[in-house]
Amino acid sequence: MKGYKIIGDKGLFDDLRGQETNDTSDDQKPRVWRLLMERGGWIYLFPALNSDAQPSQRPSILAIQASQQGEQQLILSPNYTKKRSP
């Protein structure tokens, strides 16, 4: 993570890190990213919900700047991480 700077909820970032690719090896909890839209030089992605997801469940949305390096990423989420006790 050298050279990265984070503003906002580091817990959300940590929760999503390492899950950047689709993974369908576990039939019970497959991870598949879906394209929501592409607009203004940004690509908006969200993880598909499982078939047993509640109707009120809302996934986080990743907004990634469309560039060669992909140096900017924005996490839009209805949730935030709770402060972890030391």
Question: Which percent band covers the strand fraction?
Answer: 25-35%
Average pLDDT, rounded to a whole number, is 80
**Low-pLDDT regions:** none
Order of H and E elements? HEEEE
Computed CA radius of gyration, to the nearest angstrom: 14 Å
Counting DSSP E segments of at least 2 residues, the number of strands comes to: 4
Largest pleated sheet: 4 strands, antiparallel
What structural category arises from helix and sheet content? mainly beta
Q: Estimate the global geometry from the Cα principal axes.
A: globular
Textual characterization of the structure:
The protein is built from 1 helix and 4 strands, in the order H-E-E-E-E. By secondary structure, the chain is mostly beta strands. The longest helix has 7 residues. It has a 4-stranded antiparallel β-sheet with strand order 1-2-3-4, with no helix packed on it.
